[in-house]
Amino acid sequence: MKSVIELNGVSKIYKNKTAVDQLSLQVEEGSVLALIGPNGAGKTTTVKMMLGLTKPTSGHVKVFGQHPYEKSVRERLGAMLQETSVIDLMKTGEIIDLFRSYYKAPLSMKQLLAMSGLEECENKLATSLSGGQKRRLSFALALAGDPHLIFLDEPTVGMDVSSREVFWRTVSALRDQGRTIVLTTHYMDEVEAIADRVVIVNNGKSIADGTVQEIKSTTEKNSVSFTLTDQVSSEVLNSLPGVDQVNRNGNKVELFGADTDLLIFTIVRHNIPLKDLQINKSNLEDALQLLISAS
Ligand SMILES: Nc1ncnc2c1ncn2[C@@H]1O[C@H](COP(=O)(O)OP(=O)(O)O)[C@@H](O)[C@H]1O
Ligand SMILES: [Mg+2]
Description:
- It is a single chain.
- The chain is an alpha/beta fold.
- Helices cover 33% and strands 28% of the residues.
- The strands form three sheets. The chain has a six-stranded mixed beta sheet, with helices on both faces. Strands 11-12-10-13 form a four-stranded antiparallel beta sheet. A three-stranded antiparallel beta sheet has the order 2-1-4, with helices on one face.
- The protein is elongated.
């Protein structure tokens, strides 16, 4: 697979603050990378260096094999940044047209309004849009040049449920067309739904890098729990295939193992007498908190 972005030992130091600390990572063409981590971790700074908006203090950033501030690179990027200000006294459609004029082969107005869900807002003054609609406008502007590489920095903050749905549907469609996407978000359900790969950043460093599944499995919190309806010894429970650990309190049992399907198969196969069976899957939020506190 071809790398679209390469970061090699990249650091960014502001006066007395190391915002990004020796970060190295590659983003493959056509993949969705989610950068996650607490506020102040260095996600936005990393995105800005990928965009060529901020220069690294040390290390190298390459986008499409070139420096990100080259014009030929910039023409293929689109970005939705955290802070966006809308231009006073211009209508939504006028702002979109202005951005379209920056590119050689922009998407049509109709396409951009549909992709961002702003069909009803073309003639509204941008300042009159709701917070969520302003985020959608920012999305439309990011897509104006039909970019191959798209950056989305906390894109859904301020969007309501239906805006989010339109937004992620469009992002999925872009992914299906082979676009490369880098996003940051605090919503782990969004990461689980869309990311091919997750990099967890804390204090400017990468502390975990893998698929959602790989990151979740590091916490080993998958289990099935149930209540025994007859006597079963702890030895028997411990020896069941796929069981890594048994927690037991009288007839209340929790079996831990990486694969909950296998755990269910095992307890059925061995005719364990039980009721109130429950599957407990580790979630990404748990994994994130655990990895951050361990780093
Ligand atoms: N222009 C700047 N000048 C000084 N410090 C900055 C600047 N931009 C970001 N920082 C600091 O760098 C750290 C990382 O910030 P940022 O990349 O915005 O984190 P995140 O996006 O993960 O919340 C924070 O401590 C922040 O205060
Ligand atoms: Mg940020």
